[in-house]
């Protein structure tokens, strides 16, 4: 398993954002679901070493987030919810900058590959502030996969995209999941049904479901994922 989470906890002041959660993820796309404020982004920030846990631990590709953060970051690609980009940069310039951070040996070749993979071709000569939201998301994804990490953490990568853009990004995530471990946070249940093999549902910092999509439906009288989500997050 590329990701092993063990009793991970995050407390902000009085707020228990993530409460002693454990789960594992291997190759494929894991849907990481939960209502607003459930603790999804907080978990993702701990897994990517952006914030330290209050308690518990996790390993990514065998590296502990507490003791080996650089190794964790080398093996992880992260698209944060807000997708922060340097909007004054041009697309290729931003990718070259990230390639430099990772010390890639043949950056131009890899940048061209990633532009092709993410469908950024038609927009590759633009400045980031000229890009539509969908293409900004594509650039965020391109930056996340540039160093070819084994694990991808994608926090709501398709929020605000039009249906055409949605299909393109979902196809890309499905493709990535064939070779990599992808943790995908989304509020779109249709998307989970389209791309995820496994599902973890978190509610108020606690895991309330952790199974394959098929098994989860079977245990719930073949209800839709939306119905299951509503049931499990309102008890
Ligand atoms: N920096 C912070 N300081 C204090 N509380 C925080 C901080 N970040 C998050 N929280 C709280 O932790 C809880 C979990 O937040 P988190 O952002 O992880 O939820 P989420 O599941 O990603 O929600 P959403 O679907 O709305 O993005 C919330 O109650 C939130 O208010």
Automatic annotation (TrEMBL):
UniProt key word Mitochondrion: no
Protein's name according to its UniProt entry: ATP-binding cassette domain-containing protein
Keyword tags: ATP-binding, Nucleotide-binding, Transport
Keyword Transport listed: yes
SMART domains hit by this protein: AAA (SM00382)
Organism annotation: Mucilaginibacter pallidiroseus
Molecular-function annotations in GO: ATP binding; ATP hydrolysis activity
Entry similarity comment: Belongs to the ABC transporter superfamily.
Record-annotated ABC transporter domain positions: 3-229
